[in-house]
Design a protein that fits this description.
The structure holds two protein chains of two kinds. Chain A contains 20 helices and no strands. In chain A, helix 5 packs antiparallel against helix 12 and helix 8 crosses helix 14. The longest helix of chain A is centred in the middle third of the chain and has 50 residues. In chain A, about 65% of the residues are buried. The C terminus of chain A is likely disordered. Chain B has a five-stranded mixed sheet with strand order 2-8-7-4-5, with no helix packed on it. A three-stranded antiparallel sheet of chain B has the order 1-3-6, with no helix packed on it. Chain B is elongated. The chains are: A mainly alpha, B alpha+beta.
């Protein structure tokens, strides 16, 4: 499709990209000097305070999808679509008490994979790793694609160049700084995102005559004002359970729970959910304004940036450019760091090299971060499908992990059979629903089936788990080149 | 000199040269019927012949194939438009090119977007299921947390 709506010229786009790219990499190198050992690199020394903790959780959850898919949801499904996306804040709020529990049960834990392995054994652990890696790649790819698309929409920079530069910058500073760099840059990025979204949302609101806005919507997009719009109603719960699944299972959030100081994590997650809530509402409103403001949207993925830049002109385009770059960087870096931790700890060390030394593990981290960046780049290159399709296909998989995680943290009687049955049945039912009914019901069905199966198997074949088994001894590889773990040896 | 220029203009007009050319006919890319359960679709179009930067496009929407109550949905240089919030049933679209002098080309063959939303029975059932699962999830975390705090 030929799109002639770019507001900035390419040179301005490349200058902004270069400035922020150099800034993030420099900050990554600066903060990365604190990461003297593997624990520092992976978990920022387990000493992150409330302000940084809340900011990193908020910034990570403001993904490119919040900036780009929320306006798209609003454009497709009206006010319900906007509210559907904002329900993802409930996931952060519910994870707050879970983070407290995680810190209590696993004061020396490293990854969400550690929890599943110790709690449910090797079969559930391998299934969980598969789900987590598929989801993480889908999230990374959706953000890499979003980066390329938004730069093209705003400045005409070709999709491949924009996508490549954003991925390269994130890989570089995550590589140099680990979680220290990720959390430090997240703090700055969260401030820029909050200010940017408030300014853009406020200006768009001031330019809209609400009576004319309603009349134009009713004439051109009548279904967007329907209280009972079918797909929008379904997407409300679907998006909510997708968000729960994303947060409850993914190592991005677990690594933050492990990295925060004792007594901080639950307050930080609760605060981040409140800070995050207004952002999708503001960006969704921007998307809803496209029709009433007479702005053509050639590609729904670009509605937010296009409306903001058309309403605010060049300065607006610069602001949106910076906000989107920050939201992309704050999520891609977190995902690269957390997924690399998961692959290094759970796959490389636990499955392949139990005797690996700290230096070897640090080297492996480098290879994994570069490899993840390269794989993401290759998948993003042909720009297949749209953003929602890429991401929502992984929804049923992560939604099937909601109940195994909750029960694993709170129910002593849930054993490995219940967890495995819930993961398999939930994923299968959700994927079937994705193709048979639509994306808007897949995560909901997955969560429901997973919950029912887990409850039934727990009731029929109750286990009795000893919580102290979750406090695994410090991995010996971090101290000496001596193994303390044999792959597959930790079946409960 | 003046006579030569007049002859050239006459020759161009007789040959159907650029001064007399109407914009080429635009046509939609893809199938002529789009079926959706979500009430939205992306339309894209192109024109025959060499690439021209001066063309603008007018996109019209109507509830019938005869475009009796047609409304202009878009006028501008983009070669695509995302349409959403469409009512249940059929909506028709057509597009034409307009050049810098305001001359309009022929209308394209129309595209029909057929919207068939999921049944409200299915929606109500899934909505109720969602409410139950949400209630159970919140309850499980809240009760589990209360017990864990008590035991700590």
């Amino acid at each position: 499709m030929d799109i002639r709506s770019a507001v900035l010229d390419e040179t301005t786009g490349f200058l902004l990209l270069g400035f922020f790219g150099v800034l993030w990499v420099a900050l990554g190198v600066f903060w990365g000097r604190k990461a003297r050992d593997l624990e520092g690199f992976m978990l920022a020394g387990r000493n992150v305070g409330l302000a940084l903790g809340a900011a990193t959780a908020m910034a990570t959850w403001v993904t490119s999808n919040t900036i780009m898919i929320t306006p798209k949801f609003a454009l497709q499904m009206g006010v319900w679509g906007m509210l559907a996306y904002s329900t993802a804040s409930l996931g952060l709020l519910l994870f707050a008490p879970m983070a407290w529990r995680i810190r209590r049960l696993m004061p020396r834990g490293y990854t969400s994979g550690d929890f599943i392995r110790l709690r449910y054994g090797p079969v559930a652990w391998r299934l969980f790793l598969g789900i987590s890696v598929v989801y993480s790649m889908a999230w990374l790819v959706s953000m890499g694609m979003a980066g390329g698309i938004v730069l093209q929409a705003l400045s005409g920079i070709p999709y491949v160049y924009g996508m490549s530069v954003i991925l390269l910058v994130c890989v570089l500073y995550t590589l140099f700084g680990g979680l220290y760099a990720v959390i430090g840059t997240d703090f700055i990025q969260s401030l820029i995102i909050l200010v940017g979204v408030v300014v853009v949302g406020g200006v768009v609101l001031s330019r809209v005559d609400l009576h004319a806005f309603h009349a134009r919507l009713a004439a051109d997009h009548p279904a967007l004002l329907q209280v009972l719009m079918p797909v929008a109603l379904l997407s409300l719960f679907n998006n909510m359970f997708f968000g729960f699944g994303e947060i409850f299972h993914n190592n991005v959030w677990w690594s933050r729970a492990f990295a925060m100081r004792d007594g901080v994590s639950h307050r930080a997650f609760a605060a981040s959910s409140l800070f995050w809530l207004p952002i999708p509402i503001a960006t969704g409103f921007i998307g809803l304004c496209a029709g009433p403001l007479g702005i053509n949207i050639p590609d729904a993925d670009m509605v937010g940036p296009l409306v903001a830049s058309k309403v605010l002109g060049s300065m607006g385009a610069v602001l949106v450019f910076v906000v989107v770059f920050c939201s992309l960087a704050s999520s891609i870096d977190s995902l690269l760091a957390a997924t690399s931790d998961l692959l290094v700890e759970d796959v490389y060390r636990k499955m392949l090299r139990p005797w690996a030394t700290e230096a070897t593990l640090r080297r492996a981290s480098t290879f994994v971060i570069v490899g993840l960046g390269l794989a993401t780049w290759l998948i993003c290159l042909p720009r297949l499908g749209d953003l929602i399709q890429v991401l929502f296909l992984s929804g049923p998989l992560v939604a099937s992990a909601i109940w195994p995680v909750i029960a694993g943290l709170y129910w002593r009687r849930t054993g490995h059979a219940a967890a495995v049955a819930a993961l398999v049945s939930g994923s299968a039912a959700g994927l079937w629903c994705y193709f048979a009914i639509g994306w808007y019901a897949a995560s909901l069905v997955s969560a429901a089936v997973s919950m029912a199966v887990l409850a039934a198997v727990t009731a029929l074949w109750p286990a009795r788990f000893d919580w102290s088994r979750l406090d695994e001894a410090e991995p010996s590889a971090h101290e000496e080149a001596r193994p303390c773990f044999q792959a597959g040896s930790s079946t409960p | 000199m003046r006579g030569a220029r007049a002859l050239a203009v006459l020759a161009l007009a007789a040959a159907g040269g650029p001064a007399a050319a109407v914009p080429p006919r635009a046509s939609f890319d893809g199938a002529d019927t789009i079926t959706t359960t979500e009430g939205h679709a992306t339309l894209s179009w192109s024109v025959d012949g060499p690439a021209r930067q001066d063309l603008r496009f007018a996109l019209e929407q109507a509830p019938t194939a005869r475009f009796a109550r047609a409304e202009e949905r878009y006028r501008g240089p983009d070669r695509g438009s995302f349409v959403s919030g469409l009512p249940e049933g059929d909506t028709w679209f057509r597009v034409r090119a307009i050049d810098a002098e305001g001359r309009a080309g022929a209308w394209s063959a129309p595209v029909r977007i057929e919207v068939a939303y999921p049944s409200m029975t299915l929606v109500a059932r899934l909505f109720a299921l969602g409410a139950v699962v949400l209630g159970c999830t919140v309850l499980a975390v809240a009760l589990g947390h209360r017990r864990a705090r008590r035991d700590a």
